[in-house]
Amino acid sequence: MSETVTSRLAGFHKLPMDERLAQLARMFRLSPGDLEQLRGTEALQPVLANQMIENAVGTFSLPLGLGLNLQVNGRDYLVPMAVEEPSVVAAVSFAAKIVREAGGFIAEADESMMIGQIQVTRYGDPTEATEKILAHKEQILALANSFHPAMVARGGGAKDVEVRVLPAPEGPRGEPLLVVHVLIDTQEAMGANLINTVAEGVAPLVEQITGGKVYLRILSNLADRRLSRATCRIPLSLLADFEMPGEVIAEGIAQASRFAEADPYRAATHNKGVMNGIDSVAIATGQDWRAIEAGAHAFACRGGQYRPLSTWYLEEGHLVGRIELPMALGMVGGPIKVHPGVQLALKLVRANSVRELSMVFAAVGLAQNFAALRALGSIGIQKGHMALHARCVAVTAGARGDWVEKLADLLVKAGHVKVEKAREILASLSAEDAAAATGTTL
Ligand code: MEV
């Protein structure tokens, strides 16, 4: 596959699905098997599903869409997104198109540094216990690294040990909490299993060093040493829309950002919008999206108040957006090699490393947020949402084929996007049209 892959596929959304697939097949030299995978006929087989989880009784599908137009650090990305909510894919593509005209997203990401936590109790004096642990740091690291020699050989593995003494929670057990953090570079893996093995593996040594008793040994999903950041800088002239000048749209976005910065009630919804984009790519690419969610929201609270993961402000004739959040992703391990759809999604996204992938994720989150705030700060989101929701309503009412779009248009024009209204329109058609609209025979 060549570097000439572009994410700017004009008119893609207007093509029938088969033509979209044909275009993708040409761009990515997809095999007939890949195409069958996308069509769903080669989707996750029950036999594999049965190996992945317990009590498997089947598989579960979601629509897979492609976010278009995304450019990050000068490289184009087509973003596979698995999501049930209408407008998420369209919003990312729309936002990415504007940002692309402004030079694209600039992103960066930390090394894959994760935290394994070991909870120590009955250790005696906290200062003494801390000193003892730190004095044995090299021994703890050597033991930690003995569990994953291959990762160490590739330059990863346990890198540091930290100790935290935390005030005891209220109640009769007055001992302050002593928590040992082992910092582990998990490289291309998300690393959960690896970190848990290390945390469990070094626990007896930590008990020996402190004379204490260890309870929990587990990774932390607050992966704040593994952050990903994206920014964009959009000239106001590119923002003009809805018969409003760019200044007005930008002001609406900046006001939305101020609202989220001041109010956790708003910040939660703001971040939900960010995660609409990130979760969709996470699901398509086989990531542990619960871990990403947990990390994002814990990070959003780091200053003691829940805050937005992304912010927007005006600067010298530009709207500037920034996002920063933990991004514990993997390109090896987990379902990545097992799930055929995940492999295909990774082939489409073309990230060469997990850090590159995490930059794409951050840019997608910022793009999604931009699209939401742009509408919220100006005309509101219902108009756009309703147009897409109308298709779902049309299908629910029984429309099939071309009639889904036709009926959706009629509903939007009627200003009444409801199943009863859709049924009323279908009932008003001639017998022949109604048969065509619902895919039935006369
Ligand atoms: C809906 O899924 C997401 C939004 O509520 C996000 C936001 O309010 O910023 C539109």
UniProtKB/TrEMBL annotation:
Matching Gene3D superfamilies: 1.10.8.660, 3-hydroxy-3-methylglutaryl-coenzyme A Reductase, Chain A, domain 2
Keyword set, alphabetical order: NAD, Oxidoreductase
Known catalytic reactions: (R)-mevalonate + 2 NAD(+) + CoA = (3S)-3-hydroxy-3-methylglutaryl-CoA + 2 NADH + 2 H(+)
Catalytic EC class: oxidoreductase
GO biological process, one term: coenzyme A metabolic process
Pathway: Metabolic intermediate metabolism; (R)-mevalonate degradation; (S)-3-hydroxy-3-methylglutaryl-CoA from (R)-mevalonate: step 1/1
Residue ranges crossing the lipid bilayer per the database entry: none
Family matches, as NCBIfam families: HMG_CoA_R_NAD
Name recorded for this polypeptide: 3-hydroxy-3-methylglutaryl coenzyme A reductase
Source organism of the structure: Myxococcus stipitatus (strain DSM 14675 / JCM 12634 / Mx s8)
